[in-house]
Amino acid sequence: DIVMTQSPDSLAVSLGERATVNCKSSQSVFYSSNNKNYLAWYQQKPGQPPKLLIYWASTRESGVPDRFSGSGSGTDFTLTISSLQAEDVAVYYCQQYYSTPKTFGQGTKVDIK
Amino acid sequence: QVQLQQWGAGLLKPSETLSLTCAVSGGSVSSSNYYWGWIRQPPGKGLEWLGEINQYGLTNYNPSLKSRVTMSVDTSKNHFSLNLSSVTAADTAVYYCARVVVPFGEAYYFDYWGQGALVAVSS
Fold first, then answer.
1. A109 CB near a chain B CB, below 8 Å?
2. C-alpha to C-alpha distances, B39 to A75, B49, B90, B117, nearest whole angstrom
3. Each residue's pLDDT tens digit in chain A (113 positions)?
4. Does A34 touch chain B (CB under 8 A)?
5. Which residues pair with A52 in a beta bridge?
6. Which chain B residues touch A105 with a CB distance below 8 Å?
7. Most buried one in A10, A53, A61, B90, CB count within 10 A?
């Protein structure tokens, strides 16, 4: 199984400041034949299901604010919230879909400082 | 707008079988562009993928649960279902159904999720 490890486990950022969540996979999730990284990011608020933010490591889902961006390749990925808003308080998960079983990171809790 | 509405028994005893159903509205389980999946989340913990199924009944299961998991799809009712046999307290979790995007013929990420159903296993 591909193990997904996120860092940090939690972070607190001031409103309007940048928040950065890291995700590292135990093996590459880059598929050279189509030049794509098989990685997604989700946001989960308390009492709600996860919401898809980013897929293919950097493609923003329709309707997701452009302050959310994804980057990275191979085994190292980053979710960046460029200017944290109050509604962004949530737990963020990365997920690989390169191989079965699909696996998620343990989650990173983002809060307001 | 696609919506997934799920239901099933919320309290089980050890060794019983968990059964959940997820009804799809605003879309069709018969679409070749999607699979239909299940993910669970123990209280206060992270997400675990259980498996997925397509309109033909082709399944992918998490090997860690493969012997206990059965998924099915009913295209006439536009819903899909999860059965998990021989449950224990370790199966206590919120269970989510989700639509799985299939851009290149294989199931990848989850773009719509059900609201979740808490299933508790206790004697």
1. no
2. 23, 4, 15, 11
3. 999 999 999 999 999 999 999 999 999 999 999 999 999 999 999 999 999 999 999 999 999 999 999 999 999 999 999 999 999 999 999 999 999 999 999 999 999 99
4. yes
5. A42
6. 46
7. A53
